Amino acid sequence: MHNASLHSGSRPRAIAARVLDAVMHRGRSLKAELATALPGLADPRDRALVEAICFAVLRQPLRYEGALAAWMARPLTRRDGELRALLYVGLAQLDPLQLPAHAALDSTVEAARGLGYPHQAGMVNALLRRAQREGLPAVDPRHSHWPSWLRGRLRRDWPEHYDAILAESAVPAPMWLRVNARRGTRDAYRERLAEAGIEADVVQDLPDALRLQGSAAIASLPGFADGAVSIQDASAQLVADAIAAAPGARVLDACAAPGGKSAHLLERDAALRLTALDVDAVRLQRVRSGLVRLGLAERAELRVADAADLQAWWDGTPFDAVLLDAPCSATGIVRRQPDVVLHRRESDIAALMLLQARLLDALWQTVAPGGVLLYATCSILTEENERQVREFLARTADARAEALPAQFGHDREVGRQRLPGDGGGDGFFYARLRRGA
């Protein structure tokens, strides 16, 4: 990128185009690309703009593809990935972000020159002016960027909810906070927010949660650095209620990163004895830094390990409760990670199901008689959820599923399922399994 030729407004647009090109055309992860790209922008407003643009495009890429297909006499070639991404950047600024049109147009045209497309700057300008005049062509909302095989599974699993799942997965998620009960009450923290000009709502059945009416920069949340509060979706906060560990229990969080659920359990119970594992050392370091911020790091034993390889980490002392927040398709959190479905292949699901079963079988051995294992995923696919648990129960004589109350979502034969947007939360599955005494 010819940085010297980029004036201030065009640089974030050019960076957004590069990120989108990598994600859409080269199979890269949005999270990874943003982590590399954003530190290069000094102004937090520029970083927020890049993120907002990338999310807007990836939530509904077919809208922008449709506009280019309708308006361009000659389609762009595969070699023009970065230029195509820049056109998406321009369109997204007009709709849905609704930025001032003159700034969006000028900066995006300038970014085309800076990215090495000086001859196409006129075309970029003409296309964006047309979008400004006419709006984007309508696209059937039932078409989406979810691959067709995955749409087929959704329709089979959730026929009545299919359209709603796709619609909810294409809109931004609300911002949820989890108040650290060891640092003060939820109501007291809500007052601190109000003093800072941030409005938040209390939600029934979520004792530690606040839902912001808009969104806020993390730096603007009072006491964030001191551990007063964390960012965590409503559905993830319900895990602590679903596992319902007794005071002072010995608990295992088997796939702990990024660490929010471990932290929540420790915030709830000062006497809890927690072991947190993750197979990825870098991700486990994030768990540690989160616990340090919350003042909880001394209270947990953190270990890098494959939870299913018991010989590598387990000393044979059983746990009263085990949380298996299993690796999954992440189909319940597409509104937060819109690129997840871009890269999903059908073979991924079979591989994930084998891993889930391996983890269930191994970790069951670590549960004390009379103890509980909570199986959770952020998937909405029946195969990874109730079918996985049914098959586990069929081969495990001393396991039985316990009923969970209605706040955990739609009742399935085993477990409960929240769908994206239910109660404002992510798609999430919970099954509480009790081991015979």
Could you outline the blueprint of secondary structure elements for this entry?
Elements: H1 10-26, H2 30-37, H3 44-59, H4 61-71, H5 81-94, H6 101-114, H7 121-134, H8 148-157, H9 162-169, E1 176-179, H10 186-195, E2 200-202, E3 209-212, E4 229-231, H11 234-243, E5 250-253, H12 260-268, E6 273-278, H13 281-293, E7 300-304, H14 310-313, E8 319-325, H15 346-364, E9 367-377, H16 386-395, E10 399-402, E11 410-411, E12 416-418, E13 428-435
Parallel strand pairs: 5-6, 5-8, 6-7, 8-9
Antiparallel strand pairs: 1-3, 1-4, 2-3, 9-13, 10-13, 11-12, 12-13
Helix pairs in contact: 1-2, 1-3, 1-5, 1-6, 3-5, 4-5, 5-6, 5-7, 6-7, 11-12
Characterise this structure.
The chain has 437 residues and is α/β, with parallel strands linked by helices. The chain is 43% helix and 15% strand. It contains 16 helices and 13 strands. It has helices at 10-26, 30-37, 44-59, 61-71, 81-94, 101-114, 121-134, 148-157, 162-169, 186-195, 234-243, 260-268, 281-293, 310-313, 346-364, 386-395, and strands spanning 176-179, 200-202, 209-212, 229-231, 250-253, 273-278, 300-304, 319-325, 367-377, 399-402, 410-411, 416-418, 428-435. Strands 5, 6, 7, 8, 9, 10, 11, 12 and 13 form a 9-stranded mixed β-sheet that branches. Strand 2 (200-202) and strand 3 form a beta hairpin. Helix 1 packs across helix 5, helix 4 (61-71) packs across helix 5 and helix 11 packs across helix 12 (260-268). The model is unreliable at 1-5 (pLDDT under 50).
